[in-house]
Amino acid sequence: MVRFWQVAVMVCVTVSLLQAEEPAQTFVWIPPKVVESVFSPDLGMLNSERDEYATNLAVYASNSVTIAKATESSLVNARRAIALALQLSPRNKRAVVVNFQLSKGLLPEVMESNYGPPVLARLLLTRGQLLEKQGGGENKRLSRYFIQLAAEMDPKNEDAVYVSEVLRLDHGAVDWSWVTD
Questions:
Q1: Nearest to 148 by CA among 116, 175, 180
Q2: 57 in Cβ contact with 95 (< 8 Å)
Q3: What is the Cα–Cα distance from 143 to 132, expressed in whole angstroms?
Q4: Taking Cα atoms as reference points, which of 107, 114, 171 lies closest to residue 144?
Q5: Over 80: is that where the pLDDT of 1 sits?
Q6: 17-47, pLDDT tens digit by residue?
Q7: What's this model's pTM, rounded to 2 decimal places?
Q8: Most buried residue, 49, 67, 81, 114, by most Cβ within 10 Å?
Q9: Nearest alpha carbon to residue 153 among 50, 96, 74
Q10: Distance separating alpha carbons of residues 53 and 101, to the nearest angstrom
């Protein structure tokens, strides 16, 4: 009889522990559609520079989704960053891996980054301004994407926010569908 009660208590404890576990958070990742880069070799960036920016954008996207536990806004921002990374360098290892993991519903591990969001935002702003000065349709378009991302990454960066808002007022909102769809 005592043995029966011991088993019953163990079953109840096990069931209550299993129910107490936090349910896995599910999210929907809509992978960006990138067959080949929308940017030609005439873009004002070297291939090695494109790959470096793609890696840093992918790490930023991965870490922001993981830290925010895949909130809707973090997924939207990450989709933009991953899409831009894949457009800059379609075979970038970090961007391809993060895109795959998110499409399988897995939150990637937080990765060590060369640049934190404020530093990456300053780099994107500076590079965006340089692309704007270089002129040409592709350079100006990529410039808008970089500057918009810089303002979203670090809203405390007044320069990035100001430039982004002035461009928005002068030219309208950035159309992300060109790189995401």
A1: 175
A2: yes
A3: 6
A4: 171
A5: no
A6: 555 444 445 889 999 988 889 999 999 999 9
A7: 0.84
A8: 81
A9: 74
A10: 20
Which position has the token pair 């996207």? 61
Nearest to 89 by CA among 49, 132, 135: 49
In tens, the pLDDT along 106-151 reads: 999 999 988 999 999 999 999 999 999 999 999 999 999 999 999 9
State both tokens at 33: 């559609």
> Residue for token digits 């934190």?
116
SS (H, E, C) the chain: CHHHHHHHHHHHHHHHHHHHCCCCCCCCCCCCCCCCCCCCCCCCCCHHHHHHHHHHHHHHHHHHHHHCCCCHHHHHHHHHHHHHHHHHCCCCHHHHHHHHHHHCCCCCCCCCCCCCHHHHHHHHHHHHHHHHHHCCHHHHHHHHHHHHHHHHHCCCCHHHHHHHHHHHHHHCCCCCHHHHC
Give me 20's structure tokens: 């107490």
- Contact yes or no for 180/83 (Cβ under 8 A): yes
> Measured between alpha carbons, how far is 175 from 172 in angstroms, rounded to an integer?
9
Show the tokens assigned to 139: 């350079």
With CA atoms as reference, report the closest residue to 133 among 119, 147, 121. 147
